[in-house]
Amino acid sequence: MWYQATFGWTHRWRLPNASSMTPATWNQAHIAEVIQSQKTQTVYLRQPLPVLLLYWTGMVETDDQVHFMPDIYDRDAAILEDLR
């Protein structure tokens, strides 16, 4: 399941088994209600969650097409130069 958060740009967060990380008092109906509200909430996880953030400006989607996004952090030029 992909969750998309926007901070002026689009970011995607993959959270496998996200419902297993919610507070024990939340049931599936409450989780759906929270997601549908689209309001920011602070949720304390049951246990720490390691996070690895990756940044790329091109990817192959499920339609097998390569899609490019804007280089919002202006890193592509330096990487391309290093690859030459």
Give a quick rundown of the structure:
By secondary structure, this protein is of the alpha+beta class. It has two helices and four strands; from the N terminus they run ββαββα. The N and C termini lie far apart (37 Å).
Can you describe what's shown?
The chain is an alpha+beta fold. It has one domain (2-83). Helices cover 21% and strands 19% of the residues. Strands 1-2 form a two-stranded antiparallel ribbon. A two-stranded antiparallel sheet has the order 3-4. The longest helix is centred in the middle third of the chain and has 10 residues, at 28-37. The N and C termini lie far apart (37 Å).
Give the secondary structure arrangement, pairings included.
Blueprint: E1 2-6, E2 10-14, H1 28-37, E3 58-60, E4 66-68, H2 76-83
Antiparallel strand pairs: 1-2, 3-4
Q: How much of the sequence is in beta strands?
A: 15-25%
Please give the alpha-carbon distance between the first and last residues: 37 Å
Q: Outline the low-pLDDT stretches.
A: 1-6
Order of helices and strands: EEHEEH
Question: How many strand segments?
Answer: 4
State the main characteristics.
alpha+beta; 2 helices; disordered N terminus; 84 residues
